[in-house]
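Q: My labmate handed me this sequence with no annotations at all. I'd like to see what the chain might look like in three dimensions before we decide whether it's worth expressing. Could you predict it?
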Amino acid sequence: MKWHRLISGITASFLLALMVKLGKPNNSTYICFEAEDVTTIEQPMRIAKVEKGETEKVSGNAFVEIPWFKKEKDQPLGKATYKLNISEGGVYYVWVRAYWIHGCGNSVAVAVDDGRPMVITDNTYNRWHWPRSTVQVKLSPGEHTFHLIGTEPGIKIDQIYLTTDRGYVPTGVRTPNYKVNPKQEASQGK
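A: Here is what I predict for the chain of 190 residues:
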């Protein structure tokens, strides 16, 4: 009888610990929005509509791109700007869902407010993916300006994801939870 209680007690303690671990709420905050939901955009960066057959690979109906062209020395490559209202302050890790065409078109820079641009790049080509990012920014609650800055032609950006969860790595198309321009969607009748 003592063994039965001991085993039952150990089993109950283990199950309770497992439930607490699995049921522990994740206190991280994330913001995911469509790259085409810009506040402003400067050429040659532009909003591109999804081509036929590409809808399953891209979130929404469009993305931001810098088309491939022969760049002149010191030629600016455009910038997309987003006004964000941050409800919870903290250190945010920045991810972009990107499509690079090759090694001469495989990077983009991001900056927040008047901060220095930080480059996101990798060597995965010809498919949508989330390049491993080391970009992190400390944000206080309130309004901030997020900049997506062109560094090379031949890039496409589908989504932008900011999270306070240092270990989170996005995969595939994420469900957006933030509208940069909520009035824009209502005025377009979507």
